[in-house]
Predict the structure of Glutamate decarboxylase 1.
Amino acid sequence: FSLDLLPSKNGKELTNYFLRQVVDVLLHYIKKTFDVKSKILDFHHPHQLLEGLDGFSLELPDHPESLEQLLVDCTDTLKYGVKTGHPRFFNQLSSGLDMIGLAGEWLTATANTNMFTYEIAPVFTVMETIVLKKMYEIIGWKETEADGLFSPAIGGSISNLYGILVARYKQYPEIKTKGMTALPHIVLFVSEQGHYSVKKAAAILGIGTDNVIEVKCDERGRMIPAELEKNIAQAKRKGQTPFFVSTTAGTTVYGAFDPLCDIADICEKHKLWMHVDAAWGGGLLLSRSHSYKLRGIERANSVTWNPHKLMGAPLQCSAILIQEKDLLEACNQMRAGYLFQPDKLYNVEFDTGDKTIQCGQHIEFFLFWVMYSSSGTYGFEAQINKHMELAKYFYKVLKERDNFKLVFDAEPEFTNVCFWYLPPRLKHIPKGFERDQELQKIAPKIKALMIEEGSAMISYQPCGDKVNFFRMVFSNPATTQTDVDYLIEEIERLGKDL
Amino acid sequence: FSLDLLPSKNGKELTNYFLRQVVDVLLHYIKKTFDVKSKILDFHHPHQLLEGLDGFSLELPDHPESLEQLLVDCTDTLKYGVKTGHPRFFNQLSSGLDMIGLAGEWLTATANTNMFTYEIAPVFTVMETIVLKKMYEIIGWKETEADGLFSPAIGGSISNLYGILVARYKQYPEIKTKGMTALPHIVLFVSEQGHYSVKKAAAILGIGTDNVIEVKCDERGRMIPAELEKNIAQAKRKGQTPFFVSTTAGTTVYGAFDPLCDIADICEKHKLWMHVDAAWGGGLLLSRSHSYKLRGIERANSVTWNPHKLMGAPLQCSAILIQEKDLLEACNQMRAGYLFQPDKLYNVEFDTGDKTIQCGQHIEFFLFWVMYSSSGTYGFEAQINKHMELAKYFYKVLKERDNFKLVFDAEPEFTNVCFWYLPPRLKHIPKGFERDQELQKIAPKIKALMIEEGSAMISYQPCGDKVNFFRMVFSNPATTQTDVDYLIEEIERLGKDL
């Protein structure tokens, strides 16, 4: 029983034994994850899990369960889950299971400390500044002036929220004490392909989603600078006060990069805060052959960047980076006396907890530090270039296939490749409403079959006037050309008679 | 090198070997953590860590480092950190290192998935509903009507923010689209001993800290209901619109419980949302002998509860629970087409990601599920009662000691015990400004010495008109009476000549 483990008096041996048994379960899972012949998932419906599968009960007991039973529960938890590191898991922007990042996570869990003060996280707080400094450098900011933090376990949405929060405070410091009612009617801009978290943040921050103005995109999903200009002028005419533009470097569906330089010019002209949501695309900065796609990011006031996406770090690892120092702290600090005592024995500059919107915070960046140490800048670059190569390969193969149709017939800018599968029976229906109605149902059906078989996982969605299409995306280091070929055959096999 | 690990073709053996080596490092750390004779920390200043200690460099390389070097780095990261599970670590409300929770964390890291949809986290999404259901039950809510979520890795501050966010939406659904400018001048209430995160949330949400009204407490730190009534009436007279009262079950410094029943009556009368911040005190609900201190919590509209505090779960594990179903979703959902497709093969009710303020979310509750399974309700109860017993013991011992002075001379309501240490030379100075000036410096000095020696860690803070005092707190299952006796002697030893 757990009571026999440490800190129990004679618990040392049993603890070692038990934790090693747990690790055996995990190592077995890892082996399966990378075995391309194993199923990605063993699908069951929610009600089946609720009812209990083969004795795997999710109910919480009044009396303790044995350690043996817990090991079985752990095995079952993994057994009925989804292997997100499987070479054929393409379902999310973040996929893959990095062994070094994993080791980092195990260590972080064991260290079990909190980032709010240097006092209880001396190595981690200092290490975080080093990781952030490297990120400023890569973006092209002078480190001494910049600031940032890793948004614990929450991802890019909260990083984007931080961007808006800090921008609003910079422009209107009275927001902190007086609230929105003291401000003019502020509005912000994001492209129609930008991430939905910008709207979510506006709702949370009391700005309101109506005050998020969507800027039109070109057909590849990039914000059109002239449209932004137009929207700004319109807003001003209506008596609204523009303050913030959220650009995107790597949109979720199309993988598009907004023209950052042009938008930076507009922001400068109108004195607007420029934010770059590079949650997905940020990693591309490490590739000397592709980083030009983010040119202009060095002019941004703030950047969201998720190493857990393109750079393959485990979930979650997302940073918000702010070009102007001290804003984060001024915006968020509350100086709780019981936590941030000024009369400490060390330089309290490293007590960074008051910069955050939360209080307690898990250590999230360490896995990135240890991955960076193990890969080096060049190791990341090589991996990222490989993802780009695979995307190009995938695009070329699709282009030659009869029953696949690309959403854009042009080489991918990023690792997203969007496409439809058209079963033979649809090929003879002319393009139009009738065909669209049928085509809309194809991707969901193929995906449902795929999940039931556990053979691969890929995302689909409708977008604008386009009915459901697949979005292939490369960020999984386990994926090879063979897996890509397999996916295409699998879609054909499952879809051809639909 | 990391490139030789999985998914590298022949990486299986090396991966097993490497991860087992990592686990050896961790097991060694765990052994040290529970060894009362080992130092809690090996203190160094930030600049020393930055410069590199004994070859431990925090800098990030361009070229890959060897796996051997990484193991050394991992060892060093732990070596210079703080053992928060050490039997004499009393510095934070969350302390201790639970072996089962730790195993849960390792598993979660290995599963490396995201909670936003059932599709990619089938077991976890269903399991979370079971854990939440258990929490509603314990609070005394009817499960079918309640709702909730674990705020990933961010702790009680964000849970409190959720409480205010949802309450505001319930009262003024137009907030989501129109923002604060569409609302009347809303104000909320929290006691002067309540957590600072309530003010922080007000700043973030665009309400403003000026609109957080602090209600006076009695000398034990409990909100005075009559004062709340007065503050509400005052606000109304000023034309402000009260909408929310944040009560506290277990304040951070004093461990006080607000009189929830009386406040519930007031909230009912004025139609205000009642929130209970039970981040620290929630666990007491599991103790049949102490749960009466939270009587009235079943009438709350929302509750924050952090199993990572009193219940000993690893960081972070914090839940926000809402009595009314569907509000969380209505308030936060944005229905991103690429994530929440309606045309799936399963019951999409379990795609809970749209209820949250973020998008991606780490699995945080699993460690709690597995701890609950291993302890059972009664196991938690026994542990919590033990903490309460130790607090009582500590109080009694201090009461009898000459140079220690209790902040309140009454049996502790919770596991917080606040006290001053008075070095002999101060005992003869009469109570007053002069003595206070000296006393203010004592706790920081003793703590600095303690940290340098690495012998124990305990928090101190000033509070109101009270100069720096120590706050002892029991939540570490490794702590025994011997450690408590030791702490008292250690404070005396370090402080008697100051």
